[in-house]
Design goal:
4-stranded mixed sheet; 29% helix
């Protein structure tokens, strides 16, 4: 997770926030973390978080796929795709009816991967594009 922060060329939050923050998330039954390695003898070089909540519109769990990150050394190996596919399988196991994510417009490789796997901002039922928005409080 610190590697992901560094990839964004940010220095916040500070390193010491991550261990207790990750422990808190791991203790939450509505959170899963997946780690990925290029082979069984190598350390993890990829991570993602899955966060679940009940959604009345689908009468089931929504899953937010967060913080998908693969270290530079493992990019282009298919590890990112394998990680997202494993995340989708885990969300299905948990009974999720929808998986949502946000991705930066400038992250073209991620956009291509998510579109390849069937993600879209377009919702035919509503007739338009969905936009992820936020407000920091």
């Amino acid at each position: 997770m610190i590697g992901f922060r560094n990839w964004f060329e940010r220095d916040t939050p500070p390193d010491e926030v991550f261990p207790p923050g990750i422990e808190r998330l791991l203790a939450d039954e509505n959170t899963d973390f997946l780690l990925a390695a290029v082979d069984s003898d190598s350390p993890p070089v990829g991570v993602c978080a899955l966060r679940y909540r009940y959604g009345v519109w689908l009468d089931g769990l929504d899953c937010c796929l967060e913080d998908v990150f693969v270290e530079e050394s493992a990019r282009g190996t298919g590890l990112g795709e394998a990680l997202v596919l494993a995340a989708l399988a885990r969300a299905r196991e948990r009974g999720a009816k929808r998986v949502e994510l946000d991705v930066n417009d400038r992250n073209t490789p991620a956009h291509k991967l998510y579109e390849k796997l069937g993600f879209s901002s377009y919702d035919e039922d509503l007739g338009g594009h969905n936009r992820f928005m936020r407000l920091h409080l």
